[in-house]
Amino acid sequence: MVNEVCLRTLDLDRPWLLEQYQSRGGYEMLTRILKEKTPPEEIIEEVKKSGLRGRGGAGFPTGLKWSFISRNAPGQKYVVCNSDEGEPGTFKDRDILRYNPHQLVEGMIIAAYAIGATQGYNYIRGEFWEPYERFEAALKEAREAGFLGENLLDSGFDFELHAHLGGGAYVCGEETALLESIEGKKGQPRFKPPFPAHFGLYGRPTIINNTESLASIPMILKEGGPWFADIGVKNSGGSKLFSISGNLNNPGVFEIPMGTPFSELLEMAGGVKGGRKLKAVIPGGSSAPVIPGEQMMDLTMDYDAIAEAGSMLGSGAVIVLDDTNCMVKVLERMSYFYHEESCGQCTPCREGTGWLYRVISRIENGQGRQEDLDLLNDVAARISGRTICALGDAAAGPVAGMLKHFRDEFQYHIDHKKCLVGAG
Amino acid sequence: MNTIEVNNKADIFSTEIRGEIDQWVAKYPADWKQSAVMAALRIVQDANGGWLTTELMNDVAAYLDMAPIAVYEVATFYSMYELKPVGKHKICICTNVSCMINNSDRVVDHLEDRLGIKLGQTTEDGRFTLKEVECLGACGGAPMMQIGKQYYENLTPEIIDSILEGLE
Are the C-beta atoms of residues A104 and A96 closer than 8 Å to each other? Predict the structure, then answer.
């Protein structure tokens, strides 16, 4: 089955409109919760049962995250949605915002009800103007219909929701950097603990979830946690939006059950372009270590299977590489990205990402030295785990993966001052 | 941190710009006007032909009761703010992995040849700026670029030509 949760209205003519969303039962779950005054604990319990894990990339159980908030603590609490989609290869939240913004709005209202928040923000990356406008239009419709504002549907529950536009910074996808950014500061991650559940936006208890996670909530509650869990496999509940790109005939976003064989996803994406050979796959955004094509063809798309293969499912961004690609060049480009996007706060990341890029770049450009391969592993190892946020790990991870699986290509570059691919 | 003293905030920006900024200020808690700084910078940048002067950043600081340094920090941290003049049309080309392996080099080459400038430069007539950017989250349509608020996907030299010809 495809498109069962977040993209379930995709077949409609203009699914982003309230009337069309409601034609598929939109806002029914919220209405029922508000009318029946469903105990918040029941909602959180249901989300836990669903096995939903954070769809932004970290995979932390959503229900558990919600339970960290002390609901009855006095004062303001916040619900924040992370639509700062920036992990290279990821383009699924853009489609949720463009095609099903109301389901996200409904999910955020329910999340707010569950944790006792009356204010929410959706942080949308600044470049996403069209998705931002769709989201704003949805907010307007929802407000007019009484789903946002004061005393929603006479329930006594208030909730207001706004969009916040980013300004171009990958690191703001990290949840505490995102909070800093909403506060009108540079997006530099905060040291944790304290976690946002205790000290979040404006110093108040806050939950931050990815767009896809929050947009999944209405269906999870409507059909029940176990229904969602059963779509997927053990430890990977539900369906998932996979953004698949690269050397493909039909790249795009596909919502399929967790645990679907990669070979089926590849087929949906039309297979490798020009009938070329599948060389490698980056299975979860550019931070995920690469997996050789042959090995990938035997894997299923779920957290455990991809982790056992030495990589991670991440945001579900699958980058498919055919046999014309030079892996040194691919790694050079990825390393440039992390160097460019490091916020500069932690020395190992700020200096290390530049070091990685320069060394890979000299190998790519025929200036590599034999000791560079060990040097790369050494620098990567000295970044990992030594920084405030995961950007450093994200920069280091792909290096180790590339050297493990495609060391011969790096060696060839060093020995012959040219590329193995195309060298015949 | 020092803030700039102003007698009358109504003197800072036009009524229209103030109205737009105020809409953003209203989204945040009353004592967190600073949250509107990113929106304010974007609004004044758009109204100033796509770039920020120090004077404009100081005005934003005064308007939002912020220290100028706090505004400079934001303006220099995020990639969408421009601190030097840019062309009327800023062409942002993604060259990250999914675009790269779908020949974004060819997109860059074609634009550089056609406009007679390199990445990071602006045409002499001030119409176009070429900017290399990181992943814009539209990898399914690689190679892609953004001009103004619009995304353009599945680019070929022919498509690029027709896009440029359609711009004012």
Answer: yes
